[in-house]
Amino acid sequence: MNVYIAWRAMKGDPRDAWIRSAAVAFAAWGGTSFRGTTLMDVDFTGARLKNCDFRHAHLLRTRFNNTQKLDLARPGQTLLANTTVRNLLINPESGYKLDLCKANLRGAFLAGANLESANLKQADLSEADLSGANLKDANLTESTAIGTNFTHAYLTGACLEAWNIEPTTIFKDVDCQYIYLLEHPNPLGSRERRPHNPDKVFAPGDFENLYTELMHTIEILLKGGMNPEAFAAALQKVMEENPEITFDSIQSIQKKGQDVLVTLEVPPETDKAQVEQHFDAAYVARLEVQAELYQLHGQQMKQQMDDIIAKLPLLSPTINVTSSAESKAMSDNPSISVGGDNKGNLAGGDLDASGAVQNIDNQNSTLTTTLNQLPDIPPEPDKPDLKAILTELQIAINNSELNDEDKTEALEQLNIIGEAGQNPQDNGFQKAAKRATTMLKGLITGLPAAAGLVKAVQEFLPMISDFFDLG
């Protein structure tokens, strides 16, 4: 029985791992020690490694191809401790359909390895050498591939859902016709193939370009939708700290359910985590300032209402003044009327809305003047009619469900586009128009998809881009 257990332990049975560890430790006494050393790009191909001590060694792209007696070495906590990984390092051709889920392959030398259909879900591939490896149909879901070398690797059919890559990841000359972005089909039966069209495949270089572009972007999720003022303040803060980031860095603003996803392009050396942290901090700070201003405005309105009510008996002894409880409710909420006339003040106007309505009227007047300065026909026969487009958008904004503040902001962005339309070939005006269209997209993110303004923006913004050759 003891002989059987010893045999089982030396074969790597996990039930008897402690026996094996003790036996190897005893046998390794006096063997070659690499303990605590850095073995970078060291080639042990074909070497006999019985009794070697690799505890605390830093194994980075260390070659163990066809080594002998590696199972009798002392691995410590290195990647050699896992029997499956160790056997793969010895024989890289043995990886077909291999289960390496959550495996530690950090720094592994697997150049030319056959990992077709292998399960590498949540595996750590950081700094590993997978150049020329066959990863056809491999599952790389949630794997970490920071600093990994995929040069000349074959990635057709691989699943890359939520994997972690950075600009240090190398995709030079990758051979890939298509990939999947979902491990399991969604309710529609799709695994999100790229390219979407099943009859299309990536041309040489497409995969590298796609993921190089993704690695140079930051995605910022704004929960509950976008506050345009807070977004502008946060972006301004980021641009001040990172001069290389500009309004032109905004790649897209997408509605994701109730949230909004903003994608920014950044230079390769940018500390993405720091940029996102600073953006989030500035965004939240601006929201807090808005809340404080709103509260202060409410307090000021309450005092004004209290002063008016205090003077009412002197102005009109017969006027119907509400009870004290109703008076308090009205003073806390300026939209509630005094004396039941549903106007909100004695002059018959709305103390809250009058200024906002005046701003909208002023902005409409300014925009109309700008539009009248645009020609009735496009400057080029194949260009869309900018004046007609902006007029349609002006009508849609005024009839929209936006609040008065956002309407004013939207009309102001139209005016910027209109002014740029007077000299559409000027690079500065083109950039101003691009920024304005981006802000318009942000302003409508909170509206229902069926809203008239949303449909108008979706229809006309591409025409504006064509007018300014924004691409």
In summary, what is this structure?
The chain is mainly α. It has twelve helices and seven strands.
Q: Helices, strands, pairings?
A:
Elements: H1 2-10, H2 17-27, E1 38-40, E2 58-60, H3 83-90, E3 179-180, E4 193-194, H4 206-215, E5 217-222, H5 228-241, E6 250-256, E7 259-265, H6 272-315, H7 324-332, H8 353-372, H9 386-398, H10 404-420, H11 427-443, H12 452-467
Parallel strand pairs: 1-2
Antiparallel strand pairs: 3-4, 5-7, 6-7
| Rg calc | 33 Å
Distance between the termini: 76 Å
Q: Determine the fraction of residues in helical runs and give it as a percent range.
A: 25-40%
Strand order of the largest sheet: 5-7-6
Spatial shape? elongated
Beta strand count? 7
Uncertain residue segments: 1-7, 16-20, 22-29, 313-353
User: Helix- and strand-based class?
Assistant: mainly alpha
Please, how many helices? 12
Specify the biggest β-sheet.
3 strands, antiparallel
Proportion of residues in β-strands: 5-15%
- Order of H and E elements: HHEEHEEHEHEEHHHHHHH
**How confident is the prediction overall: mean pLDDT?**
81
Could you walk me through the main structural features you see in this protein, from its secondary elements to its overall organization?
The protein is built from twelve helices and seven strands. It has 471 residues and is mainly alpha-helical. It has a three-stranded antiparallel sheet with strand order 5-7-6. Strands 1-2 form a two-stranded parallel ribbon. Strands 3-4 form a two-stranded antiparallel sheet. Strand 6 (250-256) and strand 7 (259-265) form a beta hairpin. The longest helix has 44 residues, at 272-315. The radius of gyration is 33 Å and the shape is elongated. Residues 1-7, 16-20, 22-29 and 313-353 have low confidence and may be disordered.
